[in-house]
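Field reference: "sequence" (input) and "structure" (output). Example, Putative lycopene cyclase:
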Amino acid sequence: MSTEFDIAIIGGGNAGLTLAAQLAAQDNPPSTVVIEPQTVQQRDCSWGLWALDQQTEQLAHSTKGRWRRWQLVDETRRVVHSSNQYSYLSLSSADYLLDRAAQLREPVSLIEDSVKALHPQQSETIIETEQGRYSAKTVYDSRPPEIGYSTLRQHFLGWEITTKEPIKDPDMATLMDFRVDQSRGLHFIYALPFSDHHLLIESTLISGRMETQDWYRDAIKGWLRDNNIEIGEFLCEEMGVIPMDTIETDPDIAASPISSESSESLGPQPLIATIGAASGAVRRSSGYAFQHIQQQISQLAAGIAQGNMAVPTPISSRLTAMDSIFNGVLLSRPDLAVSLYMDMAKALNGDEFARFMLGQATTGDWLRVIAAMPKLPFLKETVKQSAKQVSKQLLGQHKSA
């Protein structure tokens, strides 16, 4: 196999393998290598998303569960949504990635190797791995982003089990059940019944600090006990951490794409850029990323076919700013955290809620959410965020001067 490529993709996750598969489907694919140290089975986990019927059909091969009804619950209220337009899906990441890997064809390939370092040169980047060295004109780095200490994050531990007795309402997904310990941050149970005897339960915490694994396990045990659910068979355990704040990018590893103007004056330039979650494709207020990554990668693949290697912005600056304000209120007023999510859900119907979670909310959807939120905390946070932005701009002007 050649060691010189037009494109190297570091990481074979959602962003990396989806991009490789879309490049392989082009009439004249660029020579591309995906470098990933683990098999998809070693990285298997559950991905959640809302989807319209057409996408639901496209993802059927990797779908573990599909629901038209979902709920949010706290100590006093239950908000139940249903939708004829959207389904909530749980995907097997392994099945999805295996399907994408099966679509690869020459000159696009996947190798099992681990990247040790990147060495940008004048017209290419040298990729040093455990097993050798490769070179590429363009590098897209999809490895998980670094999460700063005490940065707001969504972290979870989940169990997949079978149950001794039939599950109540197996056609209902529980997205957030807040009837659990709230002393460590915004804490909820996420429960997806794949059938009347097959269940995924995750203890999920939104905070700046991780807890011990037993803390999440104890929360799951307590929730099962409170809901009179007995485990028939323990199938597997999964853990994860999702950033819900600014992604910290190492400038030596991921550099911004060079503009066409600069490339004309400097000649051919290597490009190293992040894609997927590392590029900010995670919705800050919810942690959902699948659809944003899919949209970014489709736009990127279309651009590459036209000779444009620049990575599209995955989430609009307006939406990021709104989510930053929401997260700021979560941090400054933890006493309001549960009610914020419950009030938002109550203000919307099923279709509106799905659109809002997808980042596709209409003006009317936003107005309904804003009307349901407490005004003073959000006004204070808006002023605070605006002041921070002005200070950042002034600091930037001072440095450039």
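Confidence is low (pLDDT under 50) at residues 248-267.
The two ends are 50 Å apart (CA to CA).
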